[in-house]
Target: Aspartic proteinase
Amino acid sequence: MGTKLNPVAVTFLGCFLLFPLVLSASDDGLMRIGLKRRRLDKNSWNAARLDLNEGKLLMRPSAGMHNLNGNLRDSGDSDVVALKNYMDAQYFGEIGVGSPPQNFTVIFDTGSSNLWVLSAKCHFSLACYMHPRYKSSHSSTYKKNGKPADIHYGTGSISGFFSQDHVEVGDLIVEDQEFIEATKEPGITFLLAKFDGILGLGFQEISVGNAVPVWYNMVNQGLVKDPVFSFWFNRNAEEEEGGEIVFGGVDPSHYEGEHTYVPVTRKGYWQFDMGDVLIGGKTTGFCAGGCSAIADSGTSLMAGPTTIITEVNHAIGAAGVVSEECKAVVAQYGETIIQKLLAKEEPHKICSEIGLCTFDGTRGVSMGIETVVDGKNEKVSGRLNDAMCSTCEMTVVWMQNQLRLNETQDRILSYVNELCSRLPSPMGESAVDCAGLSSMPNVSFTIGGRVFDLSPEQYILKVGDGDSAQCISGFTALDVPPPRGPLWILGDVFMGQYHTVFDYGNLRVGFAKAA
Model:
């Protein structure tokens, strides 16, 4: 079984750093931005693991633990932006800022909405000296703004101020684009990064400072044929071509068959409704009634509810962390939960009925008990109660699913205890045995009534060759509570297999098998 790894390393593993290949406009009116790839070396991967030692997590268990600075519009969408860790990014392209253009390598990120690059006024962050910096004095089209800006991510943050200048994307020149000059990049994340900035392709609703996104201005200034852009990621590690972003439409050579489209349900991210998640063709139960999902080109892995990620880990033999709280719930309350389910009691009330959660009218929530420690007046959040409540709710889902399969009580209790041993740790470790890929099941997602399969070869990231190779699950845990969740983030592991269309004009997202 492979070695456990931290989330930054997990998201870095198997990742490839991509550099610009060709920027071209063709007779069909589409703007193509080509990407080139080179394999991440072990030194960079090991260096990335240092980020965890600073106590920074890619995706912590509760989205409520994260927020952005108050200058983000109050959209209620701050949770996912704050979780983002761009150390996991795989795909990069080149843009120019200013006149004449100053070139920067950026991540084209559908999971955020601002453009930022490093500023020449950045003097006190080491990261700024490792990357090119924007010099406003060298641009004839620069316009001063000066409004402060601050964005916090899962493993780092940037701060600076807004400026305005022309931005060149391929042959397109976006005039008077508002962007952030980053003057501070604390932490190791951006020091090690192979990119100089982020170009957000999300909606203005999550734009810091309410800045108009680059994509909006492309459309408003009549620079694209249609208000559509699309991603094709080449997941073949043997080929130099990394993929292509197409602004203004889609390239038919990038996909097979027809796209399945689903409407955007909440502007901010490219968010849509998703159905059941299947493991080996069998339901996991948790999203059978529906979950939300986000198509996010700035995230490498697939992030989803711990309840399902644990089932995936069990099915693929991922090395998880034994949860004593989980096994304690099964030992003390397992039979009671089964009996209540057999008695047709409402599943979402069971954990509150046995005293591990309180019921808020729609679901169980942690009792949030506070305690006094060591006789001091220092109150500590009831984390144990949080864990027991969450574990109980996962246990109910697992047992309910097994009862549908007519399993015996003993088999159900044994199976749930096995799942307890596969719970992903808060650090997200999920290493697997490289020799076991042939025995792993497909993991499938139901979107728009269609089932999208991922094979083990597609969702397992392999780093290195021969005996030293390490294999990492492409799934990591992220729990976003209702009403926003349960939520999946479909990153590059998914988008690499399915050509993705972001239809701004019709507010929909489309998926088709990538060519």
